[in-house]
Amino acid sequence: MKQKISIKKNIISYDETSDNQNIEEILMKRFDDPLELERTIDDLHDPFGLKDMDKAVERILQAKQNDEKVMIFWDYDVDGVTSTSILMHFFKKIGIKASYRLPHRVNDWYGLKDYFVDECKELGVSLIITVDCGTRDIDVIKHAKKLWVDIIVTDHHAVPDEIPEEAVAIVNPKRPDCDYPFKGLAWAGVAFKVMCAVASEVLDFEEYEEYIRESIDICAIGTVADCMTLTGENRLIVIEWLKQIRNSRSRGIRRLIEDKINTDLDADVFGFVIGPRLNAAGRMDSPYKAVNLILNNGETLEKTLHEIENLNEQRKFQTKMFVEEALQKVNPKDNLLFYYSPAIEHGIIGIVAGRLTEQFYRPSIVLKDEWDKLVASCRAPEYFSMIEVLEKYKDYFIAFWGHKQAAGFSIKREKFWEFKTKLLAELNAIDFRAHKKEIKVDKLVGLNELGFGFLYKINKFKPYGIGNTKPVFMVEDLQFTSVEILGKNSRDHIHFKTPHGYKIYGFWFGQYLEEIKKAGKIDLIFDISEDVWMWKKNLMLKVVDIVIY
Q1: Which of 118, 161, 187, 536 is buried most deeply by CB count within 10 Å?
Q2: Which of 441, 486, 488 is nearest to 496 (CA)?
Q3: Would you give the DSSP letter of residue 9?
């Protein structure tokens, strides 16, 4: 295994044995079972394999039979938006009286609260279904039980030692006592499974099959936008929608992607086109707008779409501003990166934390001032579990939540400095700076080897994303005629010109422009995709990293 150090100080490695293999042989090694490439939506697991699914379905059908009011309580990010949309559309179809409620990102933060249950009781709601939360809300569910309000918890977060026994059902594939064969479902995947289970009881076979296929697109969006692995069932869900991407049941989703449907579509269309816009509604204003965009096919759709596009532009502007400030303020030598701003928008602290972790390959915590408390979003590289660390300090928090690499907490101001001191004392004993990000090159190539035939072979293994990343290639001693800033209004991005005429774009490589120009020679590390401009197809090489000499 050969290694090089890149311009970003990453380790670039490649296996010399791949020189004698074609790209299809190399990519096939990623799959433990070659048959995974042949599976279809018909191979999805039985939803009743999820622990407590039978109890959840029984209670939902009881609510239908008794004409009860059902409230879906959801998270404000895209996973909650897509999950709620799946359930709301289905419940309306089968005649369940359902509505939805969400916490305010600033005033309520995350999770179910007593006063939400009280509101539901006053509205005559007798069943609450939580979306992407509830597994840790033990006291709130006890409170609901006293008010004769039943709660079904549907979640996919890590499960603590103690769970709310008063819940009617806790449908979570990560439960230790759940034998479901695939643990990596997004919450949209869990919602989809709940819908499938209920639908199998109330729809005939043909209608069931048709409805499942019609609903797969919203589940796929939530799966990719929630950064879940694109293996197992998640892979099948995303593949199915890529087959029928032009025919989404949601007019709002069709409008979001209509200028993208002539490109070489992959999971990127969810992660970079749809997901950020649906998230922007909740980050900058109200996530109700995102649900409205998905469910609304009426006259107000265009107005909602325009509002969401504006919110996404605001999100991009503010993200750029605070990322630049954070990069200047944090100390790159610190083991754990802290950034605090009283002015930062609540909805972008996670984005800023993610950018810090990406830049320095270390855990980061971004803090927002909220009167008498601080609210934090945490990110971590794959070698470190942020949620396990927060679990150790849970007594300091008002609340905490999250996954291994993305988590958050709220804490009283007077407790923060003691918490920070203890946390740093623990983490300073670990040398995070010794960790270097490794980029594994799948194959060394020459530019003359590339073409649409080569791209066709790569595309057989789509969709690419977490768990099945885009293949990465390297051209050694790249000959380029020029390298320049891309665009007029920003110096963030660069583009290369070569004698071969390929489009080679280096997004966020602007800071290295002069260093690249001075280099005697470079190795280019990149991925490859199809680009369509003015109805003409071209190959686009996107720079992943650069080795200079």
Answers
A1: 187
A2: 486
A3: S
